[in-house]
């Protein structure tokens, strides 16, 4: 007996998305917290360690605190822009280590390594948001790691 191969029926999913007028006129806006929740659920499914998940939450919390003070009109993750992130880098560069903790507060600023770790978290989350169609553009695409500008001999 000869096998019959069943060919794909209907239009392909990608074709349907491109031709659908409903998806063109309607987009969902996610807050930074909602995007973080989606990101964390995906990372749990990937098997990321609990400590790493905690660091992701902490690093995005620093950004959220900055935005609430210096950009109170910021609402959605799609509003993140390269210029806003560069402002955040400048803010981080000038921020005192352990600011707000009277017992631990230092006169030094955050280290270059600390800033770059926070940027790496943000870069990972922004890339994820673009891949998952949470946001249309990746604001971290052209943002490089922070450099202290020191030349060591």
List keywords for this structure.
mainly alpha, 53% helix, 6 helices, DNA polymerase, domain 1, 153 residues
Query: What is the percentage of strand-forming residues?
Result: under 5%
Intertermini distance: 78 Å
The CATH topology of the domain at 28-131 comes to DNA polymerase, domain 1
Taking the sheet with the most strands, its summary is: none
SSE string, helix = H, strand = E?
HHHHHH
Structural class determined from secondary elements: mainly alpha
Q: Which CATH C-level class of the domain at 28-131 is it?
A: Mainly Alpha
Oligomer: single chain
Query: How many strand units?
Result: 0
Q: List the total number of helices.
A: 6
Report the average pLDDT across residues.
Answer: 81
The gyration radius over C-alpha positions equals: 21 Å
**CATH superfamily grouping of the domain at 28-131:** Tyrosine recombinase, N-terminal domain
Uncertain runs are 11-26
Short description:
It holds the Pfam family Phage_int_SAM_5. The chain is mainly alpha-helical and 153 residues long.
Structural overview:
The protein contains 6 helices and no strands. The chain has 153 residues and is mainly α. It has a domain at 28-131: Tyrosine recombinase, N-terminal domain (DNA polymerase, domain 1, Orthogonal Bundle), CATH 1.10.150.130. The longest helix has 21 residues, at 50-70. The chain is globular. The protein starts with 12 loop residues before the first helix and ends in a 22-residue tail after the last helix.
């Amino acid at each position: 007996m000869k096998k019959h191969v069943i060919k794909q029926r209907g239009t392909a999913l990608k074709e349907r998305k491109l031709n659908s007028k409903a998806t063109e006129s309607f987009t969902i806006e996610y807050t930074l917290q909602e995007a973080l929740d989606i990101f964390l659920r995906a990372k749990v499914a990937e098997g990321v360690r609990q400590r790493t998940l905690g660091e992701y939450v902490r690093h995005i919390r620093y950004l959220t605190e900055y935005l609430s003070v210096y950009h109170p009109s910021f609402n959605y993750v799609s509003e993140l822009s390269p210029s806003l992130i560069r402002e955040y880098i400048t803010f981080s560069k000038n921020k005192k280590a352990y600011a707000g903790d009277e017992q631990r507060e230092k006169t030094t600023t955050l280290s270059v390594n600390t800033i770059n770790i926070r940027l790496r978290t943000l870069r990972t989350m922004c890339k994820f948001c673009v891949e998952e169609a949470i946001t249309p553009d990746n604001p971290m695409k052209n943002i490089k790691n922070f450099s202290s500008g020191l030349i060591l001999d």
